[in-house]
Amino acid sequence: MAEPDLRLDPLEDLSLPGWVYHDADFFEAEKAAFLRKAPQVVCHVSEIQQPGEWRKLDYLGESVIVIRGDDRTVRAFHNVCRHRGSRLVDDEGGCDRVLTCPYHGWSYGRDGALRGVPHREQYPGLVSEDWALKPVAVEEWQGFYFVTLEPGAPSVAETMAPYEAEIAPYRFAEMAPIGRVTLRPRRLNWKTIADNYSDGLHIPVGHPGLTRLFGKDYRIEAGEHVDRMEGDLRDTPSANPSERAYQQFLPDAAHLPDSHKRKWLYFKLFPNVAFDIYPDQVDFMQFLPVSATETVIREISYALPDDRREMKVARYLNWRINRQVNAEDTMLVERVQAGMESGAYEPGPLGTSEVCLRSFARRLRRELPQARGAAPPA
């Protein structure tokens, strides 16, 4: 299908049809078109500093290990034994001298090479070099490691190039985790979550706390591969105790320019990775698709070393505030998902300010022209 002329596209002012948020065949088409190509964040450099330290990511039915070798090189491998396909590791992370399969005991070095084969005499023609763990493409960006199941998408460095100067002062690579990876299963299509993340019009309606903190000063913009959102903290004390205390105790972040010392900044990388960037901490969030109506939200926070009492209080208050925001979003997106699954829903109009939703719908229709249809193709 030829790409439509957007100047004449009758769908330009309409949201996506509801069926693409729950149709199983469309989900399979998304995986083939772009989900498997999209870089996925696994961990931070601080979590795999020593040889043998590894972290795991499960994505689209695949399981990937990112591990630092004895030569200090970071590599990524499929979490699959080459003998009988057993998963090698189950935890989110660890540190091992070798990766040993729990099924038959085949073992692999930190470089992925096959090191040990019990009952080796039973495999007379086996050449160890032919049976190393299968590699996965890995990229380091600002101290974060990303993996890609298939080639075809731009690198994270290319995607985030327009924002490098703004992000540099935060010193991502010098951060360390201040929490643990949390996995939150949700009965939602991944796009329902992604849409909500970049939706600016729901802030004053669905998030009274953010409205108290930002007032009407919440801005969104859509790039080719990245949505950028921001809000500046108001000086007017909030009526909410946690928000008011955060406003009061948030200390000066000397490493940031004045324009960002009280700014909450958000980036969503197409299709399903986001970074929440605060003066006091940073977290990544992924919307990991499981099926057409199931998604796991994966997230963890990081911060620069800072022993100031005010900073510790600010980070705790940030967590309290955003815990409430997450609860509000959960309720909102569950209502949207239910509506998308109703036969009564038809694509609704998009406002002129809904630039991120417009950009996302345009991108999806370009990637998968079937999304232009009011109903699934036969």
- Count of DSSP helices? 9
Report mean pLDDT, rounded to a whole number. 96
Structural class computed from helices and strand pairing: alpha+beta
* General form: globular
Assess the beta-strand content as a share of residues: 25-35%
Query: How many individual domains?
Result: 2
CA distance, first residue to last residue: 16 Å
Uncertain segments are: none
Please estimate the helix content: 10-25%
Which descriptors apply to this entry?
single chain, alpha+beta, Naphthalene 1,2-dioxygenase Alpha Subunit, Chain A, domain 1, Rieske Iron-sulfur Protein, 2 domains, eight-stranded antiparallel beta sheet
Explain the overall architecture.
With 378 residues, the protein is an alpha+beta fold. It has two domains: 1-37 and 163-378, Naphthalene 1,2-dioxygenase Alpha Subunit, Chain A, domain 1 (Alpha-Beta Complex), CATH 3.90.380; 39-152, Rieske [2Fe-2S] iron-sulphur domain (Rieske Iron-sulfur Protein, 3-layer Sandwich), CATH 2.102.10. The chain contains nine helices and 18 strands. The chain has helices at 24-35, 156-160, 164-167, 190-197, 203-206, 208-214, 241-249, 309-340, 355-367, and strands spanning 40-44, 53-59, 62-68, 74-78, 93-95, 99-100, 107-108, 114-116, 135-141, 144-148, 176-177, 182-186, 218-222, 226-232, 263-269, 273-277, 282-291, 294-303. The strands form three sheets. Strands 11, 12, 13, 14, 15, 16, 17 and 18 form an eight-stranded antiparallel beta sheet that branches. Helix 7 packs across helix 8 (309-340). The radius of gyration is 23 Å and the shape is globular.
